[in-house]
Specification:
The protein is α/β, with parallel strands linked by helices. It has helices spanning 43-46, 90-96, 122-135, 149-160, 176-179, 186-191, 193-197, 203-222, 229-239, 242-253, 263-271, 319-322, 324-335; strands at residues 23-26, 29-32, 50-56, 59-66, 73-77, 100-104, 142-147, 165-171, 280-285, 308-312. The protein has one domain (23-335): Alpha/Beta hydrolase fold, catalytic domain (Rossmann fold, 3-Layer(aba) Sandwich). Helix 3 (122-135) packs across helix 4.
């Protein structure tokens, strides 16, 4: 396992203090309880972040977690180019309503290990989520959240082993069947140029130039107007060395590598293109410069009954960071329905 841990910045990150909206877990569902102020006005004193290392699917995952260890599991999966810190606003919101909210650094993202098998296909990512569910003591009341690549992993895990998860929340990448036509439009192909460039052996060199300025530019293009300097510094610390960068690009190269040899991962990969049976909340930033909202298709047609889509105004690809209160309210409300 990579030895480095990366400091989590102050809980509010410059936002005005907010009265927590507290809820309680009742019979596998969430029921609203009267709000209560933290003793010293600091949310971190109520749900301090914990650093954990968990062995799952044959490798070690570093995780950030908040909330009661005995609460229902809320597993939060990040995408590219990002880290587990992307959930810093949502982890305390989930913890406040009783969840044990856990955000792993995905495989290949330090301080999580680089997998010895070199596998980064969506089926394997889904199997990671299932194995983390086991390792973290999850049950049928667990919920699964995913952004970007984490969303693709979440679709696979939710459909492959549905009894593990009560509800699903995804963001920025719609169900694959919904996007099938939109991904091949000219406008979306122009946005997705990097995906094809990452197939080139020149990609590692280009991304690494000028202190990984490529990563800064992606964030600027994908979430226009958002200052992502804090996030990109963490990304560079996680995947800035050649081995971890190669791992992160491996996700994209696996798209064209054919199905995995492992039968369980292959089954999860197939499941990722089917309709997950759980009610799902899908969030998409209106100004997303990576995955255009026009390319996402009829999203709720490819989600279970009781699902909904929320378009987040004033946000791009990283809506949960750009509009944390709006996204947090939508997520907590949906999970409590």
């Amino acid at each position: 396992m990579h030895p480095r841990w990366y400091r989590l910045a102050s809980p509010e990150h410059g936002r005005e203090p907010r009265t927590p909206k507290k809820q309680t877990i009742t019979g596998g569902r969430l029921a609203r309880a009267p709000p209560a102020e933290p003793a010293d006005g600091d949310r971190a004193s109520v749900t301090p972040v914990r650093h954990e290392t968990v062995t799952a699917n044959g490798m070690e995952f570093a995780c950030l977690s908040e909330g009661p260890p005995s609460g229902p599991l809320a597993l939060c999966l990040h995408g590219f180019p990002d880290t587990a810190h992307t959930w810093r606003h949502l982890l305390p919101r989930l913890a406040e309503v009783g969840y044990r909210a856990v955000a792993p650094f995905m495989r290949g993202y330090a301080p999580t290990a680089i997998p010895g098998d070199g596998r980064y296909d969506v089926g394997t990512l889904a199997r990671d989520a299932e194995a983390l569910h086991d390792a973290l003591g999850g049950d049928g009341d667990a919920v699964l959240l995913g952004h970007d690549w984490g969303a693709l992993a979440a679709y696979g895990a939710a459909a492959h082993q549905p009894d593990r998860w009560r509800r699903l929340v995804t963001s920025a990448v719609a169900p694959p069947a919904s996007m099938a036509a939109g991904l091949l439009t000219y406008d979306q192909l122009r946005r997705s140029w990097y995906l094809y460039f990452f197939q080139s052996p020149l990609a590692e060199h280009a991304v690494g130039l000028a202190d990984h300025a490529f990563i800064d530019r992606l964030w600027a293009d994908w979430s226009p107007g958002y200052d992502g300097a804090e996030e990109t510094a963490r990304v560079k610390a996680s995947i800035g060395d050649p081995d971890h960068l190669r791992a992160a690009l491996g996700y994209y190269r696996a798209l064209f590598a054919g199905p995995p040899d492992d039968p369980d991962a292959a089954a999860a990969l197939v499941a990722s293109s089917t309709v997950p049976p759980q009610p799902a909340l899908y969030l998409h930033g209106r100004a997303d410069g990576c995955m255009g909202i026009d390319a996402m298709g009829p999203v709720t047609d490819f989600l279970a009954p009781g699902s909904k889509m929320v378009v987040v105004d004033g946000a791009g690809h990283f809506a949960h960071l750009e509009q944390p209160d709006r996204v947090g309210d939508a997520v907590v409300t949906f999970l409590g329905a």
